[in-house]
Amino acid sequence: MPGLSKSRYTTFCQCSKALWLRVYHPELQPEDPNLQARFDAGNEVGDLAKGLRSSLAWRFFLVIKDGKWGIVNNQHDVLVPFE
């Protein structure tokens, strides 16, 4: 049997026979004409999210000085003054 993924585990929890059919007889699965479009849209959103995450160079830190706290970024700009 091929490796166990999260979706295969979920399928098994819902219906073990459905997992068996998916693994050993995938040709018997009903075809959904919109399925590939949904996969493509999900992959596009994932790619956009990865690009956004890598383009964000800003990191934020909670800093405590002399018993007072503030928030600064990696450029040492104070975003929330120390109180």
Describe the structure.
This protein is α+β, with helices and mostly antiparallel strands. It has a domain at 55-83. It has three helices and three strands, in the order H-H-H-E-E-E. A three-stranded antiparallel sheet has the order 1-2-3, with no helix packed on it. Strand 1 and strand 2 (68-73) form a beta hairpin. The longest helix has 21 residues, at 35-55. It is elongated and about 65 Å long. The relative contact order is 0.08. The mean pLDDT is 76.
Low-confidence stretches: none
Fraction of residues in helices?
A: 40-55%
Strand order of the largest sheet: 1-2-3
Order of helices and strands: HHHEEE
Mean pLDDT: 76
- The radius of gyration over CA amounts to 24 Å
Layout of helices and strands, plus pairs?
Elements: H1 6-14, H2 16-24, H3 35-55, E1 60-65, E2 68-73, E3 78-80
In short:
With 83 residues, the chain is of the alpha+beta class. Helix content is 47%, strand content 18%.
Could you list some keywords that capture this structure?
83 residues; elongated; 3-stranded antiparallel β-sheet
